[in-house]
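Retro notes - structure team

What went well: the batch runner handled both jobs without manual restarts.
What didn't: labels got mixed up in the shared folder, which is why I'm recording both outputs here explicitly, each with its sequence directly above its tokens.

Job 1
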Amino acid sequence: MTTADRDLVVALRAELAAIDPARPCDRRAEATGLIGATPARAASVARLLLRLARDRSQVEQSLDWEAAPEHCRLAYLRGLFLAHGSLSLSGGRTHLEFLVAPADAPVLARRLRSIGLPASARVRRGRGVVTWKNGDVVGTFLRRIGATGAMLEVEARQVSRALRGDLNRVINAESANLQRAVGAAGRQLAAIEELVASGELSEQPFVVRAVADARRETPEATLGELAERLMIHRSAVQRALERIERLATQPADGEGRPSPLA
């Protein structure tokens, strides 16, 4: 992650850790989720552990998920994320995972699925891992556990990245189109000069001569601009320029060349 992304993750964790549940049951549920957390994990988590010290002495080893109301479940998940969760915002990709005991991973995945946040669970190097790689699901989870302010910044950055990506694609496409147009204009001018030198241009129909003159006078003009200037269809301009290039590349003896009326 970039420094800005890391700072945003730190701010998000600080915002969650600063939440002070009003309900005693929520405080106990959050303290249950914090079981196993160490003060060294983050300064904000260390302060939270001190604030909930009395509640932590009263908690059970696990939350009765089925009997717990929604607000207690979310408080528990907030504590679990602060104690055992990690978040990555690298390169516009969002990745959140919980590191838990191997036996707890499928249990946590089932609990998350029951509140509409399905996650994958596996064992990695002897640790249970419950993962989300979907940015929308991660955003929904973080907002539900209280990280509203930080998520606004995350979403703003994602929109900014998407806009920059779209802008770069448009610029690249326009640059490629411009390069093709410059190359085509260069070929057309060279063909016109060749036909002028040989006298063959004067033998061509009026439209072909008019298009050739317009191209020589405005080398940078697009087909549409040439058509507008000459008050003819764009397709007529394109056919005239194709004819000019074809004439210039065919043998000088005229074999196989189009007739003046073709």
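Job 2
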Amino acid sequence: MRALVANVEEVFREAAARWTLVAYFALSSLFILLFAAAVNLDVVNGALAGAKIFGKSVEMGRHSVDLDKLVLGFESGFAGFLYVVGTFLAIFATAHLLPRLQEKGTVDLYLSRPVGRVPLLLSRYLGGLLLAASNIVYLLGAMWLIVIWKTRLVHPRFFLAAGIILFGIAALMAFAFLVGTLTSSTAVSIMATFALFFLSAILANHDRIAAAVSSEWVAQLVHALYWVFPKTAQLGTAVVALVMGDEGPARMQKALALQPFLTTGAFGAVCLALACLRFRRKDF
């Protein structure tokens, strides 16, 4: 247990020493400041009488707008945006963990300790996940408090969306670790993970893509890749649907079904298991 805690602590120390931690939270703070400065709401008797977004006035018409519904719309939109931003920042901040570990000298130091290779890799993974989680909580928590401060409305679902975002990050991090064990390259891990993110989002339309191709085997391949890869687009929709709750359209609520979470979780678990197997057998 002490070794696990020590390895997790070293992930944060390494991130701080390489300025990754500072840059990570500095970028997040920039997004928070932009959000705080960009949205100005004029609330009168619990209703929205006027609003400015990025310095431009929003036309309210002759009647005030229901504040609760409008704030839900704002929060759902920002939650979807933070899903993408938070995921990208997390991959940039953690993709180096395995390649860095496998550098000559660094890996010798770690392997000289009385800790197995698999626990060592898993502790690095846990440390990276905690690093990403702290930033996601900071991002969503700060924006949630800003919304409460400006509107006096509390929607806990906005903050709870952090769980879905972190779940998607965990699956993509597992893939980045697998690529890291195979290539020992931070750049390749980042590029491969981002490629997976976008390709998985495109495959959300696998039925249309399969219908458009001319070969049957290509159509079958498209369907197979859809079921194997993580459901990044569906998870993004699930974030928005969770925040909107009953106010969201019925088609969007389908994103909260178990299927995208089960297949994405299975993908992440397999990638992490393969990464452990490769790291255990790797010759250093």
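One thing worth noting from job 2: Residues 2-37+67-281 form one domain.
We'll revisit the folder naming next retro.
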